[in-house]
Automatic annotation (TrEMBL):
Localization (cell): Cell membrane
Domain Cadherin stretches: 4-84, 85-193, 194-308, 309-413, 413-530
GO molecular function, one term: calcium ion binding
Gene Ontology biological-process entries: homophilic cell adhesion via plasma membrane adhesion molecules
Keywords: Calcium, Cell adhesion, Cell membrane, Cleavage on pair of basic residues, Glycoprotein, Membrane, Metal-binding, Repeat, Signal, Transmembrane, Transmembrane helix
Main localization (coarse): membrane
TM spans (from-to): 530-559
Descriptive protein name: Cadherin 7
Pfam families: CADH_Y-type_LIR, Cadherin
Record InterPro entries: Cadherin, Cadherin-like_dom, Cadherin-like_sf, Cadherin_CS, Cadherin_Y-type_LIR, Catenin-bd_sf
Top-rank taxon, per record: Eukaryota
Function: Cadherins are calcium-dependent cell adhesion proteins.
């Protein structure tokens, strides 16, 4: 309430209010100065309002006192319950934790004024989750209340926590939240095998690294606390088997390290230990965190293929060996207890040329053909060993046969030499250095000896010098070589190798005489250059030859064009004329085309077809088409046949919905002329008259001459 000292109570003073919330929240009685609130106030929205009030003269509307400013403070009441702004909560705590282990802290907030009364003073209590957990009333810290809580028995708990203001007194407001507590795992369970012993049967043919068995020790823990390692600690299979762990399933996987042999050992016993990899010292009192079991592996007998005494046989034979020479022997046996006899053969895919044979019973390998080291120095063949009682069991052995070399190839020039000698060469001048090759491969390498043949040893043109290093040098003996006298020399050279026995060959070196420049480089080696006429050069001869060739080509073209000209289509009446086919690639224009074809002829079968002249055919070949006749009688058989097919096409649901061509192969009941066979005519006394054949055109003239009754008839 506001009151001015000037106000006498006679109504001459008027009060007005301005400022924060004036007229909307607060109003003032202009006569008395009383201030009223027009709506409910909420301290949590706004706790203070600043207002200004002034007293005015009602008549002059002028202030009678200075303006006054005052603050309205909203007094709090307990109208807000505590709230858990971060709820609901999730937390975890290790299993087997001692009593009082902190789990999580919950916090509730109250919007009421904490400085006024107990409206914002909150205490916590647990409504659900006892007796396993408790909560600190003032701090909201949740702790374990029971010892040795086991995750394997129950791994999750749902708690309900309450926060109440007014220090928990009656009449206070409250709020709740939920807390999900999960017990995390610790390694408090040692691994244990479900069984004290295991037994597995495996065939002896199982390949290396194959899985024999999977065993697993049970562990109630999870994650790293359940990780295990397995090892074979004892038994007679320590070197034959090994065990590893599957990281995903924590199983022990037993695999084979060495091949099994039923005939050598029929069973193995393994002592296997499983142990946790991460042991918690706090729980060692619960027992050893490892366990043992026994695994017995029974080896089963299988029918095995024969086994060779060696995986690879190495043999040698001379390439001079005769057919049937013994090279070596292979041996295989049946490893089974039955010890079935073994038969041998060669895999011909490895000996396509059939150079070798093998005795089926003894395994002795012999030569079947002559050998050539230069063709194939080493033969790798596969020998098959089959059980006599079970041919499906096949063992394979590998034989490498090395062919020993003999001196069976004579030496020869290393290459084709192109040797030249200059016309101005001097005596003793080197014109060629030669070498030799030999397909043989002697142990100590090649040694070749060069010399001229006996008939060439005394020639006056060239000589040969052996360099003693598998090469030889050809030198001139004289000077003054002239191409016009002799343009080419042939020098036979005798080459001998160092084999035992030695082989030799005669190789001819071709030496051409050439015109050389000052540096001794050949310019031209053609002897014809000296015998050309003085007034005719090489270029002129080439031009003359080109002209002659051009004339020949023109003559050939003229002859070819004349032969390709079309001959006139004139037929000899004496020629045996058979069938002539004239092809027309015409297409009708469909139903709208009424010019190309007479559609009425298709609809009226009684109309006689006339021969019409085609506009696209020259008159001189029109007689090749089959003759038609104006006076063809109405054939009832064909008419009925066509009408029946027309009806079938009209009712056919698969027929196309447009005009289409239907083709039928129907010849009627036979020809009125019956058979035209000349054999039949001779053997029978037929009085048939064939004179009408003369009217059928030139194609039937030969038949008319043979069967007609005219004066030209061949037979009477």
């Amino acid at each position: 309430m506001l009151h001015s000292d000037v106000d006498k109570g006679d109504g001459s003073i008027k009060y007005i209010l301005s400022g924060e919330g004036a007229s909307s929240i607060f109003i003032i009685d202009e006569n008395t100065g009383d201030i009223h609130a027009t709506k409910r106030l909420d301290r949590e929205e706004q706790a203070y309002y600043t207002l200004r009030a002034q007293a005015l003269d009602r008549l002059t509307n002028k202030p009678v006192e200075p303006e006054s400013e005052f603050v309205i403070k909203i007094q709090d009441i307990n109208d807000n319950e505590p709230k858990f702004l971060d709820g609901p909560y999730t937390a975890g705590v290790p299993e087997m934790s001692p009593v009082g282990t902190s789990v999580v802290q919950v916090t509730a907030t109250d919007a009421d004024d904490p400085t006024y009364g107990n409206s914002a003073r909150v205490v916590y209590s647990i409504l659900q989750g006892q007796p396993y957990f408790s909560v600190e009333p003032k701090t909201g810290i949740i702790k374990t209340a029971l010892p040795n809580m086991d995750r394997e028995a129950k791994d999750q708990y749902l708690l309900v926590i309450q926060a109440k203001d007014m220090v928990g007194q009656n009449g206070g407001l409250s709020g709740t939240t939920s807390v999900t507590v999960t017990l995390t795992d610790v390694n408090d369970n040692p691994p244990r095998f479900p069984r004290r012993s295991y037994q597995y049967n495996v065939p002896e043919s199982l390949p290396l690294a194959s899985v024999v068995a999977r065993i697993k020790a049970a562990d109630a823990d999870v994650g790293p606390n359940a990780e295990m390692e397995y090892k074979i600690v004892d038994g007679d299979g320590l070197g034959v088997f090994k065990i590893s762990v599957d990281k995903d399933t924590q199983e022990g996987i037993i695999t084979i390290q060495k091949e099994l042999d039923f005939e050598a050992k029929t069973s193995y016993t393994l002592r296997i230990e499983a142990a946790n990899m991460h042991v918690d010292p706090r729980f060692l009192s619960l027992g050893p965190f490892s366990d043992m079991t026994t695994v017995k592996i029974i080896v089963e007998d299988v029918d095995e293929p024969p086994v060779f005494t060696s995986r690879l046989y190495s043999m040698v034979v001379s390439e001079a060996a005769k057919v049937g020479t013994i090279i070596g022997t292979v041996a295989a046996h049946d490893p089974d207890a039955s010890n079935s006899p073994v038969r041998y053969s060669i895999d011909r895919n490895t000996d396509l040329e059939r150079y070798f044979n093998i005795d089926a019973n003894s395994g002795v390998i012999t030569t079947a053909k002559s050998l050539d080291r230069e063709t194939n120095a080493v033969h790798n063949i596969t020998v098959l060993a089959m059980e006599s009682q079970n041919p499906a069991q096949i063992g394979r052995g590998y034989v490498a046969i090395t062919i020993l070399d003999i001196n069976d190839n004579a030496p020869e020039f290393a290459m084709e030499y192109e040797t030249t000698v200059c016309e101005n060469a001097q005596p003793g001048q080197i014109i060629q250095k030669i070498s030799a090759i030999d397909k043989d491969d002697p142990p100590n390498g090649h040694q070749f000896y060069f010399s001229l043949t006996a008939e060439a040893a005394n020639n006056h043109n060239f000589t040969l010098q052996d360099n003693k290093d598998n090469t030889a040098t050809v030198l001139t003996r004289r000077n003054g070589f002239r191409r016009q006298e002799q343009s080419v020399f042939y020098l036979p050279i005798f080459i001998v190798d160092s084999g035992s026995p030695s082989l030799s060959s005669t190789n001819t070196l071709t030496i051409r005489v050439c015109d050389c420049d000052a540096d001794g480089i050949a310019q031209t080696c053609n002897a014809e250059a000296y015998i050309l006429p003085a007034g005719l050069s090489t270029g002129a001869l080439i031009a003359i030859l080109a002209c002659v060739l051009t004339l020949l080509v023109l003559v050939l073209l003229i002859v070819t064009m004349r032969r390709r000209k079309k001959e006139p289509l004139i037929f000899d009446e004496e020629r045996d004329i058979r069938e002539n086919i004239v092809r027309y690639d015409d297409e009708g224009g469909g139903e709208e085309d009424t010019e190309a074809f007479d559609m009425a002829a298709l609809r009226n079968l009684n109309i006689i077809r006339d021969t019409k002249t085609r506009r696209d055919v020259t008159p001189e070949i029109q007689f090749l088409s089959r003759p038609t006749f104006k006076s063809i009688p109405d054939n009832v058989i064909f008419r009925e046949f066509i009408w029946e097919r027309l009806k079938e096409a009209d009712v056919d649901p698969c027929a196309p919905p447009y005009d289409s061509l239907q083709t039928y192969a129907f010849e009627g009941n036979g020809s009125v002329a019956e058979s035209l066979s000349s054999l039949d005519s001779i053997s029978s006394n037929s009085d048939q008259n064939y004179d009408y054949l003369s009217d059928w055109g030139p194609r039937f003239k030969r038949l008319a001459d043979m069967y007609g009754s005219g004066p030209d008839c061949l037979y009477s």
